[in-house]
Amino acid sequence: TKNTGRNGHHFFQKSMNANAHNQLQLLNDLRAAIDHKELRLHYQPKFVAPHGPVCGFEALLRWERHGVTLTPDVFLPLAEKTGLIIPIGEWVLNEACRQLHQWHLEGHPDWTVAVNISALQFEQPNLLEKVMEIIEYHQIPPAMITLEVTETTAMRDPENSVNILERLTQYGVKASIDDFGTGYSSLLYLKRLPASELKIDGAFINELIAGSEDASIVQAIIALGKTLKLNIVAEGVETAQQQNFLTEMGCNTLQGYLLGRPMTPAQIAAKPDSEWQAHPAN
Ligand code: C2E
Ligand code: CA
Ligand code: CA
Ligand code: CA
């Protein structure tokens, strides 16, 4: 009837407003999050395949909002859309470098850290200057920092990406092509990108079993990466079968819940050093 229609419309508008209101509230809170010291970095270990030792950590952003820990999927799209990702990304790089310097002083001089760089951040003309400034401030060897750029970001304007990554890697930081397999790489440009690492997207690892379609894709990615002399990382490794299978296929580095979840620096410090050494096969 007419009434239902009107009510339905009214309800729709109300929920739209509520949603817009929530997003606005989220944005306002996010603007203040840096100043209010609500951002945190968790660190997920990356291990030499198959059983370690640890070869570095990936910094993953968290937001402590009203006592709730939010993951990036909740707020990063908004940060990217509004440009807030620029100051946030700068905070992330600075905090990761500060933490790495502390780890080096605390007896882990060989640990490295990887930082995710958003598309907007990657395209800032002063990215290299910012990176240099932060790394020099914390007195870290640039080679101990990896910048993870997704395949999709890198292939948006491949010619420009080659340029940006050449300047960054000439300075000395490492580059990793993240979420590989989900974008559309031009092999011509992939060959020219001065990256040292390729990260196979977790989507291919999830249901990885011998003989599956995903297994053939992963095999092909590993072969491609080897040809280009890249270190091959698999993310999202959750089972021992995946661990063994990826190792057999020639994957160099493993990351995932099976080997280590993202952890706070306090949780990392609480683990005995033996945790980071190579483990015997089980
Ligand atoms: P990503 O770079 O692909 O990071 C891997 C994501 O998979 C992380 O989610 C990690 O917690 C999760 N993960 C790790 N191991 C496993 C596993 O075994 N199984 C499953 N199911 N998931 C696993 P998280 O921390 O929620 O981050 C999501 C995405 O947000 C990241 O994906 C990255 O694209 C972005 N991100 C995180 N931190 C930052 C940051 O500081 N800056 C920017 N620009 N992006 C960030
Ligand atoms: Ca990443
Ligand atoms: Ca990834
Ligand atoms: Ca991913």
From TrEMBL:
<protein>
    <recommendedName>
        <fullName>diguanylate cyclase</fullName>
    </recommendedName>
</protein>
<feature type="domain" description="EAL">
    <location>
        <begin position="23"/>
        <end position="276"/>
    </location>
</feature>
